[in-house]
Amino acid sequence: xxNPGRTQPVLTARGAGFVxxxxxxxxxxxxxxxxVRCRSAIEPDDPASLQRVWAWLAAGLIAYVPANIYPMLxxxxxxxxxENTLIGGVVELLSHGAYGVGLIVFVASIVIPVAKFIAIAxxxxxxxxxxxxxxxxxxxxxxxxxxxxxxxxxDVFVVAILSALVQLDFAAAINxxxxxxSFALSVAFTMLxxxxxxxxLIWNANERVQVT
Amino acid sequence: MSxxxxxxxxxxxxxxxxxALHRDxxxxxxxTARCARCGTVLxxxxxxxxxxxxxxxxTALILMIAAVLFPFLELSAQGLSQRASVLDAVLAFSTGLMxxxxxxxxxxxxxLPAARYLAILYALAPMALGWHPARHAIAAxxxxxxxxxxxxxxxxxxxxxxxxxxxxxxxRVELGPAFWAFAALVVVTIIKxxxxxxxxxxxxxxxxxxx
Lengths: 212, 211
Prior knowledge:
The complex is a heterodimer.
Chain A: E1 19-20, E2 27-28, H1 50-69, E3 73-77, E4 80-84, H2 86-95, H3 99-128, H4 135-149, H5 154-165, E5 167-168, E6 172-176, H6 178-196, H7 200-211
Antiparallel strand pairs in A: 1-2, 3-4, 3-6, 5-6
Helix pairs in contact in A: 1-3, 1-6, 2-3, 3-4, 3-6, 4-6
Chain B: E1 12-14, E2 21-23, E3 33-34, E4 41-43, H1 49-69, E5 73-77, E6 80-84, H2 86-91, H3 99-128, H4 137-146, H5 153-168, E7 172-175, H6 177-195, H7 198-210
Subcellular location (chain A): Cell inner membrane
Organism (chain A): Ruegeria sediminis
Protein name (chain A): Paraquat-inducible membrane protein A
């Protein structure tokens, strides 16, 4: 497939008076509401859609606060109960000498969520302002955020498996804490924020600046 | 450039990421077409993909049934033992306020992956056999693509690995048949998703539905 008009301003579906479907790539008439091929809803690449990104991102941030405050795990061994927060779990893994796994959990539950919040906010801001990172760089950033976002759910699954497995009556029992719920919500909200972001805005922003 | 009347939209493809227009050409199997502007893969057809995707989705569905029913992990310490199936992991949050999370975990690791295999089978199996697409094939495939990020079977398997390390010091853990079924399921799913070339599937669905 070659591009008709490979000279600098690339001809886009919008520029040619059509709308492209983000799900299947079909070129639709400009007033289409659903794609003629796959019948997905067609949304215009309007910066107003960023409001949804900001709303989900705010929800994700809010849910991330209790996820760090409340315990993730409640461990009972021989009648003695201890509670572990997100960071507490990482510290414990490291103190047991499980550096590899400790590092994985640290990256999955602390580094990735925080980096995701920053990355999505940066992408949303850069649509309206000139960005230091070019279109290609921001596209890569967006793809990384979309790919990696789901993996934060690993913490919730670990808690689920541990709680199901370690139920040895008096000897040892692990139960989930309140943070598991808010962490799962935070991950889901951030995934929705990334999905609400329209990558066409990364590319069309340049055109708008040139036109106006 | 602005004369929309001279452009036939059926001869064009818009890049789903950056909206750049491309002439819609037949891509030979095992070749990859990329967007000229942003580099997104536009088409990467594989020969016999429909048949392979159908077979792999059917395999994954059978493995999923095995993964849910058989014991997953068995833990033993100080003469006590506890057997957990995937169902137990789902029900771990089922008490009190955590119940909605239980439902969410059930959806993420069992129901959505299984629904996705069924939807792909429904949409693609008739085409693999050379028949007309089923009546709601378009809706089924659109749905399968939309829930893709929420089907988290492979993340669950890595979660199991982390959990095993955490309890390794506490007790002895044995892997049950369901663990291997689930691990195989993840591999099959990844191979299957690599064979799915969205634009090719959509084009085939559109052409066969019309004729």
